[in-house]
Amino acid sequence: MEETRDYLAKIGMPKGDLYDLPTSQKRFEDGGQYRFEVPGIQSPAPMKALLEQLDEYGIQIHRVTQTKGIWTLLDKEIEQMLEYADKWKVDLILACGPRATTDTSASVASPEGMRMGYRLRGQDQIVRGVEDIKRGARLGVRNFMVYDEGLMWLLGKMRNDGFIPADCKFKISAHTGDSNPCSAKLYQELGANSINPVRDIQLQMLAAIRSAIDVPIDLHTENPKSSGGFIRHYEVPEFIRVAAPVYLKTGGSVAATHSYDTTEKEARQRAKQVALVKRVIDEYYPSAIVSPQLKK
């Protein structure tokens, strides 16, 4: 084992999980250690309700993420969500649409087939995934969530070659199953701009991932029942200290499943979850630096 660990160190990777939980010195470009993201906002009305409720709490978030897929939205809905993103100065992330769970194959619903997650089956689905991204970009979207490493590789090349806008950014979903420094490093090299490890990642594993990559890490502070239902609010100060820069994905416990259609009432409940997480940060890590409001 020591030979393997020594080789990992030689190529700049951690020898193992970092149980000493070193403090990350990495930051967002604005100097912040953390930002807030609210996922599962699938349409304009819940997005507006969320942002208005956050205004009442006096909390600024940085990302709103739609998870059902670009193909589930009308052009006018995307345009409205972009207007809200501009008004409230948040990044809007739209998810790539085609995925295994909506494909014609029933295998993904089987105990073994579900291991493929949301990955794309066949090259035609890759083409359709690119078309979803192109449509979003044409309407003005510049932030996208990707579920397939092959699609990420292709999108990285397309961005470099000018086939899609150079300012497009890509977020890797937790549904890819990323959970170790080597896979995180791979996604970074493919062109990912932020990476979401599995929802139950432990702190020593998270510290090792941070030591291997420079892009932001997206972390679930809580989860729907369908993915465990666990709430990690009290771990958030350590998330920030160990893994900065991080996006804190908050509000998931309000939903029953991933891609859940959040209502306006539930969007306001998600806003409350952000306030609850902010309280924990303020009490237990008051020196943590939150990024200022994004410039639009």
Keywords summarizing the entry:
296 residues, alpha/beta, TIM Barrel, eight-stranded parallel beta sheet, 9 helices, 8 strands
Protein architecture, described:
- This protein has helices at 2-10, 44-57, 75-88, 123-139, 149-160, 181-190, 203-212, 236-243, 264-284, and strands at residues 34-38, 63-66, 91-95, 143-146, 169-172, 194-195, 217-220, 246-249.
- The protein is an alpha/beta fold and 296 residues long.
- Strands 6-5-4-3-2-1-8-7 form an eight-stranded parallel beta sheet.
- Helix 6 runs parallel beside helix 7 (203-212) and helix 7 runs parallel beside helix 8 (236-243).
- The longest helix is centred in the last third of the chain and has 21 residues, at 264-284.
- The chain starts with a helix and ends in a 12-residue tail after the last helix.
- The model has no long low-confidence stretch (mean pLDDT 94).
